[in-house]
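Troubleshooting log. The previous structure file for this entry was overwritten by mistake, so regenerating from the original sequence record. Sequence copied from the archived sheet and checked twice against the printout by T.R.
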Amino acid sequence: MITLSVNGKTYEIDVEPDTPLLWVLRERLRLTGTKFGCGVGACGSCTVLIDGEAERSCQIPVDSAQGVKITTIEGIQPDHPVRKAWTEEQVPQCGYCQPGQIMQAVSLLSQNSEPTDTEIVEAMDGNLCRCGTYPRIMRAVKRAAQEAKKS
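Regenerated output below.
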């Protein structure tokens, strides 16, 4: 049995220890906001927070995710500054990459509340958007940083 802490809840799951965390989240816990993209950690659509750090869930064996705090897109409240900024800046086009993008932005802003443009680009660089909404993503991260300062 594998014990996971996901979005503040504890789950015990009977699964092979080398199963990627992504598949446990999606198939066993039905937290389908975390997306499968490439399966090799290159696109960022499967990004979750592990103890607050953005990580690619397709690359994490579930047994190594025990004893850490996992946060998926479902664990980010709708009134979170990043989620609000995403809506206000109309970032999503097709929307497939957005959960991973949002998780990466949440991680960035939790570590750096006033990132420069260069720091935003560097942090978001591994999250691919087929629709090319990168200018909107940049604006949303900046807006979220400003909103977070106000609260």
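The chain has a mean pLDDT of 95. Archived copy saved in two places this time.
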